[in-house]
Amino acid sequence: MGLLKVLLAAMVVFVHAGQLPGFPTMGGSIAVQAFYIISGFYMALILNEKYVDQPHAYRLFLTNRVLRLLPIYYVVVGLTLLVALVMTITLGEPRMEFFQAIRTNGNRLAPSTSALLLITNLTLVGQDWLSFLTVSPATGTLVFTGDFSHAWINLNSFLVAHPSWTVGLELTFYLIAPLLVRRPLWVMVLVMTLSIAIRAALRYFAHLDSMAWTYRFFPAELLYFLAGGLAYKAYRHLKNRTLPGWLCPAAIAIALLYTAFFGLIHQQLTQQGVPGGLSSAVYRLVITATLPLVFIGSKHNKFDASIGELSYPLYLVHFLVWETLGAWHIGGAYINLYTLVIATGLAYGINQLVGQPIEQLRQRIFNKNSPKKPVASRRMVV
């Protein structure tokens, strides 16, 4: 599973830093939704097999999620501020979206709006909500917008770590995951159906089909988290069965190759008249269907687990790397590859210095609250 997560993070890098010449890659929305599916699988896994007998299990679950997310996020924020200082000294100003937004529009915000932006940047909570808000030109207070990309002020530009809005959306899922992923199959399917209905109503009746509504509105995205939950139920059915030796490696190959070459496959299909939405839906279905076998085939692979630990810091830090290279005009036509390589190196360093110590802390907290010796393997800690 780790290789798949890092590959999806690399797809997001190419969305921001530019595609490889002649090699179209996956769009950002599809990559993010694939992450949602994987997240749903892992949350169902640990909530059903790890956080089951502990006292105050819900609080322990949320505490561990916060410890997983916030320290690495704060490191990226700190790096952003450090780079901004260096840019100010050497270039005269920090040439990054966040600081440009403050310089251009900071004085147009009401104190309450500034306070909200400060809280979201400090806590990650509500960063996805900014996609549905802008400010009133008259008062600087928050007002609703149907399309943030055409709003008077795009509040997303005030995020210190630009990609972190997806983490805010994930936090919403964590709050309700214990109420959903332990339910019978029919309950999860019902909620998924409601999520699909919300998505359809927004698109076809409310005519809300901008970027915010296609993969940032949590009730509509809940579909993908629960698809991962269904994949966990399939895994639970398969994990104690004797499977053909070729099946799991084949599933891993399909998931990785389909992800890596999705752009080319999608391009060919759409040229043949296949609707783009159908092509994307097929990919999501394939990822959902292969996840149980991918996990079975990789859960004891230490290399895969180590690679997977880089996906979160890589996802968060790559935008900073891309903006930094662009500010100093480094990389030229190969800025995408420079971004990927440097961001991967930074992700490794962040994981070694911060991620692994935090992981040990999370394990100590979990073990302290376990009434019996934990039997979960290291692969269960996500």
UniProtKB/TrEMBL annotation:
Transmembrane regions listed in the UniProt entry: 27-48, 69-89, 159-177, 184-205, 217-235, 247-269, 281-298, 310-329, 335-354
UniProtKB keywords: Acyltransferase, Membrane, Transferase, Transmembrane, Transmembrane helix
InterPro entries, per the entry: Acyl_transf_3_dom, Acyltransferase_3
Residue ranges of domain Acyltransferase in the record: 3-344
GO MF terms held by the record: acyltransferase activity
Keyword Repeat assigned: no
Entry superkingdom: Bacteria
Protein name from the UniProt record: Acyltransferase
